[in-house]
Design a protein that fits this description.
By secondary structure, the chain is α/β, with parallel strands linked by helices. It has one domain. 17% of the residues lie in helices and 28% in strands. The chain has helices at 99-117, 143-152, and strands at residues 19-23, 32-34, 41-46, 54-57, 78-82, 85-92, 125-132, 157-160, 163-165. The chain has a five-stranded mixed beta sheet. The protein has a four-stranded mixed beta sheet with strand order 2-1-3-9, with no helix packed on it. The longest helix has 19 residues, at 99-117. The radius of gyration is 15 Å and the shape is globular.
C-alpha cells in the first residue's frame, strides 16, 4: 500500500483562524473546514494562538480499498496536523444508538491504515476525536477503554467531544 495521507489533494491550505468548524454534509462528499457558517459545524476548533493548522479530508477523499476487494475501508472523516501534533476526527450527527463505538472503530481503523504507510513517531501528540453534533459536550469514556485504545493504537488518546482546543 503506497498511500500518502500528508501530501494529497485532500489537504486544505493551512489556516490560522482563531475559531473554525469542521463540517460533513454526510451525503458522500468529503469533510471540510469553514469559518463562517456555524450551523454547518459538527466540531469546533478553538485555535486561540492562531497556529497554522492543516485539515486533510480522509473519508470520501483518500480512497482505500480493502486488500483483494473493491470494498472501501472504513475511515474517519479527516485529520488536523500542526507542529508535531496529529489529531484524527470522526464527525457524527446521531442522538443515540452506538455512535461512539462506531466512531471509535473508524478512528482505530484509520490509525491502522496511517501506521501501515507512515512513520508516526515524529508526532509527539496524537489524539483521536469522536465528535457528535447532537451530543456536543464531553462524553465520558471509561478509563479502561481509553487505556486499551491508547495501547491498541500505539499512543493515540481518545476523546469524545465536539470542541477541539489547540494548545
Amino acid at each position: 500500500m503506497s498511500l500518502n495521507f500528508f501530501e494529497t489533494v485532500c489537504r486544505e491550505p493551512s489556516r490560522r483562524t482563531a475559531i473554525f468548524g469542521i463540517c460533513d454534509e454526510q451525503d458522500g462528499t468529503k469533510a471540510y473546514t469553514d469559518a463562517s457558517n456555524k450551523e454547518r459545524w459538527i466540531a469546533t476548533v478553538i485555535n486561540n494562538n492562531q497556529r497554522a493548522i492543516s485539515f486533510t479530508a480522509i473519508d470520501n477523499c483518500i480512497i482505500i480499498l480493502k486488500q483483494g476487494t473493491k470494498d472501501k475501508e472504513s475511515s474517519c472523516d479527516g485529520m488536523l496536523t500542526f507542529s508535531n501534533n496529529l489529531f484524527l476526527v470522526e464527525l457524527k450527527k446521531q442522538g443515540t444508538g452506538g455512535w461512539l463505538s462506531k466512531a471509535t472503530s473508524q478512528l482505530e481503523n484509520t490509525i491502522r491504515l496511517l501506521s501501515a504507510t507512515h512513520n508516526l513517531a515524529a508526532f509527539k501528540y496524537k489524539k483521536a476525536y469522536a465528535c457528535n453534533k447532537k451530543r456536543p459536550n464531553f462524553t465520558v469514556i471509561d478509563s479502561a477503554e481509553k487505556k486499551a485504545f491508547f495501547e491498541r493504537t500505539k499512543g493515540f488518546r481518545l476523546d469524545a467531544q465536539a470542541e477541539i482546543v489547540i494548545r
